[in-house]
Specification:
globular; three-stranded antiparallel β-sheet; DNA-binding; Arc Repressor Mutant, subunit A; Four Helix Bundle (Hemerythrin (Met), subunit A); two-stranded parallel ribbon; 241 residues; homodimer; mainly alpha
DNA sequence: GTGATACAACCTGTATACAGGCTGGTCTGA
DNA sequence: TCAGACCAGCCTGTATACAGGTTGTATCAC
């Protein structure tokens, strides 16, 4: 593995885990020393993380750990809904590859199994992986590299990703019902794509993203579950410093 | 100006003007010599252009000038329509700042003047600038940095930008009618945002982007007008090498 | 004549040295 | 005591040297 990639991954972990505080300046020499690399790959890694949004350029040069207002995350999730709706619509309009649809259906069965009440902790963990895969397949079904790239950029922020709040949700009451609704969305969108019902497919994915928005609000008022959200430490809550 | 920014701008110009051919490998030493900079800023510029999409990473390392299939541009324009529709909907739902709306209305008047038949060549040039500004204001009206950033990424590709095909359009018959329709969209979307008609605002911007798709098809069958499209040399036409 | 191999040129990834500029603190004078 | 200026440390942007790997070509063997 290249030093650049290694630095990018480790730096991302340090940020998302909260070891590097939001607002903290990331000087190249200090990061380089911490990661045991030279300034060149560290610089490249910082540029990539800035692209992802985890790090923000400082006017006088260099980068600092970024933080996110609740409204921004709101917007990012809604934007994901619109983009995934776009992808679902394209898939329905143009027709999705048979193999992709078949895999989505297989995934639906496995997700049903994972979400059959009572849901164990492992069930949630399994669901996170399966759900992420499902959303990847949806993008694949649209068959557009341009759309895939764009969605990838939004989803790069972990709390904007489809599975961002699922684990935190597990710690909340009534969480099992939310999963049931989410599953229904998944099932219905596959059906809509198969039947070439474009408007329905789009509307479903938009509504689907709304579940994440609701989870966001719930989680923000529960310090314990917020810790379960990857990158949750970067979230600036309303009325906080 | 920094060497990095200078290299980025000049390299972008070289690519969009066709001086660097699509598919051509851009080795750091050769580019550095051409631009009179050292490898470090050239490398940074290449990374940024790769982010924009003008340049594509090569598996074995380094970058090559990218090219675009007609379908990709299709998709990029439709994606822009969806994102601008998203922005228009947000603006209508949440309410746009009064100042922004006022400026959009002022712009409408000036665009009307520029597009009153018969339209001179200067009229088209003026319209390009005014149109670009109008679309920027639409994004501003949505009041979301997340959305603005995302739209900015799509629009970075010149032929996916709102004014990408306007100049080429000037060389085509019936072009004046298209401008009239586009203007009607502009007028209507401002009205929709003012009246908080979210669904209407969104649908209008989607349809608005379709005009660009139609222009794309027209232009692709007219070699002369294709030359007027910035970055047109990067477009791979169907059935071409 | 063709295929495989070896070599040479080149290119990327990385480390590091250097110059210019910014920041923060301290000291001095009013 | 407070304000302003100066100074030192640090940091970024840039240039360049070096090592490892890749590509393309030329040559040799079959």
């Amino acid at each position: 593995m290249s030093q650049t990639l290694s630095a990018q991954l480790r730096l991302r972990d340090l940020i998302l885990s909260g070891e590097l505080q939001p607002g903290e300046r990331l000087s190249e020499p200090s990061v380089a020393e911490r990661l045991g690399a030279s300034r060149t790959p560290v610089r490249a890694a910082l540029v990539r993380l800035a692209e992802e949004g985890l790090v923000k350029p400082i006017p006088s040069g260099g980068f600092a750990v970024n933080s996110f207002a609740e409204e921004e995350i709101h917007d990012a999730i809604e934007l994901r809904g619109t983009l995934e709706g776009h992808a679902a619509r394209l898939a329905a309009e143009r027709g999705a590859p048979g193999g992709t649809l078949a895999e989505m259906r297989r995934l639906l069965v496995r997700m049903d199994e994972a979400t059959t009440p009572p849901i164990s902790e492992d069930g949630f963990t399994d669901y996170v992986a399966l759900n992420a895969h499902f959303h990847e397949l949806l993008v694949e079904a649209a068959g557009s590299a341009v759309v895939a790239r764009q969605i990838g950029r939004v989803v790069a922020l972990p709390f904007a990703s489809p599975s961002g709040f699922v684990l935190a949700q597990a710690a909340l009451p009534a969480s099992q019902c939310v999963l049931v609704v989410a599953q229904e969305h998944h099932r219905a969108v596959v059906e809509a794509i198969e039947h070439r019902e474009a408007a329905r497919a789009e509307a479903l994915m938009r509504e689907h993203a709304r579940l994440a928005r609701r989870n966001l609000e719930l989680v923000l008022h529960d310090q314990d579950s917020l810790r379960l959200v990857r990158g949750g430490v970067l979230i600036r809550r309303r009325g906080w410093a």
